[in-house]
């Protein structure tokens, strides 16, 4: 494969984004490209980002990582979904579980049959038909692609891991593939006077590193794309108003849940992420409605184990960079924008940007359409995830605090409004343009937060009642039977991927 004009690639930043980019690009193109990564120990990394979604398995396997070894190295655990508490109303609980819900019959999606059964008084709970939810609820896990002797999909999993250890693990692999790492703080960026392209970066010690192409993984600073190239930022705080998180690691509680917990409070929400050696905890909040002291005290009072460090606050502004590729530079990770960590999508966005960059790797000469296509695709990805996250805030009946009142009453993007209305009127959900979240994801969050359809697909009435009852009963029996045979997550980890005592 030829690499067009690019022979020397410089990655600025050694957080999750930088090392993910370095490792995959070096694995795929290390022989044609000379890759350098610059990171500053003095600046450090953001140090959060511990929950993922299932496509990360594709990324890890593209790198050739062995899943058990990766989990040992990162103190990882398994994640089957996210449990949302107090979101639709105080006291409510539901899960956005990965994987399918029930099984489509013919051309009609499962929820229509379930909605009909509900209307007739025997549908049970939607999550009776989610294998992931039922396993998660009982803290069980095993790798199972299919439920044996059935047509039903098995467990669909992602991971919780220590983000710092993940970056360290990837670094080892990337350096093995030939990436040169330079430690030092960049103090200057030189642009070519004619083209406006980045020519080089200068470090504090005077060292100059030049390159043909640059990847900005410098975190919220956005050193190249934002600062040097002046690409603006589209602010989404009108829809996603939280602007701070207090984070603190703590000892694990008594259970090892195979899911993330997201517990809503008066002006935001709290995460609990169980790792092998500790739990990651944080409270995301909106500083217009809550002080840092109050947010910290809510967090510390709701830990399941002793805190292991002092809490620290991370300010952020939700939104996206106006362009993700400009001149001879792309940005990814926090330098490209930040949505809420609510659905654990940031690491996924990094992964997608790397894969897209590989797919659209610049050839010889100027290729403006290629750049436009990249910007359009990454922009769409950001916007569709944004809509999904706004749904969680907006679809609530909470009126107990000014923050929730504001979220309920805010005007939402038309794209989201249309999706909600269609579901409310017809029970229908369509995944638009291969967007990240599936119909099953939208279904769980909409129903879980109290949006109830007025109707279902008329074809769902075509099945005799006895047959529908039997169908639902069989699905539930298969799922319950299979869950009963799964080991606990604790036992599964102990048998397969327990980290050595000193791995952290
Ligand atoms: C509160 C919070 C919770 C989150 N939770 C999740 C989650 O559960 N799941 C998820 O997928 N994502 C989550 N994220 C996002 C996730 O943390 C990031 O997407 C991920 O860590 C990538 O960060 P990064 O590499 O872009 O930036 P950083 O980790 O900030 O790394 C920036 C790098 O750039 C370097 N750098 C910066 N300036 C210079 C300079 N002048 N010279 C040299 N080097 C420089 C730094 O040294 C560092 O190496 C969360 C984010 C926040 C804020």
Could you list the spans in which at least 5 consecutive residues all have pLDDT below 50? none
User: Helical segment tally?
Assistant: 15
Mean pLDDT: 96
CATH architecture tag of the domain at 8-77 and 161-235 and 319-384: 3-Layer(bba) Sandwich
Query: Sheet bearing the most strands, described?
Result: 7 strands, mixed
Dominant shape: globular
- What is the rounded distance between the termini? 39 Å
- Going by helix content, strand content and strand pairing, the class is alpha+beta
**What ligand molecules are bound, each kind once?**
flavin-adenine dinucleotide
Strand proportion, as a percent range, falls in 15-25%
For this structure, what is the CATH homologous superfamily of the domain at 8-77 and 161-235 and 319-384? FAD/NAD(P)-binding domain
CATH fold node name of the domain at 8-77 and 161-235 and 319-384: FAD/NAD(P)-binding domain
Percent of residues in helices comes to 25-40%
Strand line-up in the sheet with most strands: 5-4-14-15-16-13-17
Radius of gyration: 23 Å
Q: How many DSSP-defined strands?
A: 21
Assembly state of the chains shown:
single chain
The first-level CATH class name of the domain at 8-77 and 161-235 and 319-384:
Alpha Beta
Structure description:
- With about 500 residues, this protein is of the alpha+beta class.
- It has a domain at about 10-75 and about 160-235 and about 320-385: FAD/NAD(P)-binding domain, CATH 3.50.50.
- Helix content is about 35%, strand content about 20%.
- The chain is built from 15 helices and 21 strands.
- The strands form 5 sheets. A 7-stranded mixed beta sheet has the order 5-4-14-15-16-13-17.
- The structure holds flavin-adenine dinucleotide.
């Amino acid at each position: 494969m030829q690499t067009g004009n690019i022979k020397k690639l410089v990655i600025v930043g050694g957080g999750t984004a930088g090392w993910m980019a370095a490792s995959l690009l070096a694995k795929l193109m290390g022989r044609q490209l000379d890759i350098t990564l610059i990171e500053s120990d003095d600046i450090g990394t953001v140090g959060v980002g511990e929950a993922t979604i299932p496509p990360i398995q594709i990324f890890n396997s593209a790198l050739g990582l062995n899943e058990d070894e990766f989990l040992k190295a990162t103190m990882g655990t398994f994640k089957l979904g996210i449990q949302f508490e107090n979101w639709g109303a105080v006291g409510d609980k539901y899960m956005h579980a990965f994987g399918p819900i029930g099984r489509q019959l013919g051309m009609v999606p499962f929820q229509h049959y379930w909605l009909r059964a509900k209307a007739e008084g025997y549908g049970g709970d939607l999550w009776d038909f989610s294998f992931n939810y039922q396993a998660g609820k009982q803290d069980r896990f095993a790798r199972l692609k299919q439920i044996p002797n059935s047509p039903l999909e098995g467990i669909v999993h992602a991971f919780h891991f220590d983000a710092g250890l993940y970056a360290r693990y990837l670094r080892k692999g990337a350096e093995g593939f030939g990436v040169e790492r330079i430690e030092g703080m960049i103090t200057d960026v030189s642009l070519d006077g004619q083209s406006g392209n980045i020519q080089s970066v200068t470090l504090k010690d005077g060292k100059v590193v030049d390159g043909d192409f640059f990847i900005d993984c410098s975190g919220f600073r956005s050193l190249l794309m934002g600062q040097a190239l002046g690409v603006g930022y589209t602010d989404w705080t009108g829809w996603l108003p939280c602007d701070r998180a207090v984070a603190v690691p703590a000892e694990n509680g008594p259970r090892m849940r195979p899911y993330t917990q997201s517990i809503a409070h008066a002006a935001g929400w709290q995460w609990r992420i169980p790792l092998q050696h500790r739990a990651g905890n944080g409270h995301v909040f909106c500083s217009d409605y809550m002080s840092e002291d109050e947010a910290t005290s809510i967090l510390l009072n709701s830990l399941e184990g002793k805190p292991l460090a002092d809490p620290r606050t991370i300010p952020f502004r939700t939104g996206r960079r106006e362009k993700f590729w400009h001149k001879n530079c792309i940005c990814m990770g926090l330098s490209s924008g930040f949505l809420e960590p609510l659905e654990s999508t940031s690491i996924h966005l990094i992964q997608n940007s790397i894969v897209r960059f590989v797919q659209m790797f610049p050839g010889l000469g100027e290729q403006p359409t290629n750049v436009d296509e990249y910007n359009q695709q990454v922009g769409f990805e950001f916007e569709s995830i944004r809509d999904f996250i706004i749904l969680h805030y907006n679809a609530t009946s909470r009126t107990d605090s000014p923050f929730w009142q504001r979220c309920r009453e805010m005007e939402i993007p038309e794209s989201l409004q249309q999706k909600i209305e269609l579901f409310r009127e017809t029970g229908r959900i369509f995944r638009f343009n291969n967007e990240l979240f599936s119909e099953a994801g939208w279904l769980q969050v909409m129903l879980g937060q109290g949006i109830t359809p007025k109707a279902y697909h008329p074809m769902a009435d075509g099945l005799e009642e006895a047959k529908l009852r039997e169908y639902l009963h069989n699905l539930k029996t298969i799922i319950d039977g299979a869950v009963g045979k799964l080991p606990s997550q604790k036992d599964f980890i102990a048998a397969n991927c327990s980290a050595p005592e000193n791995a952290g």
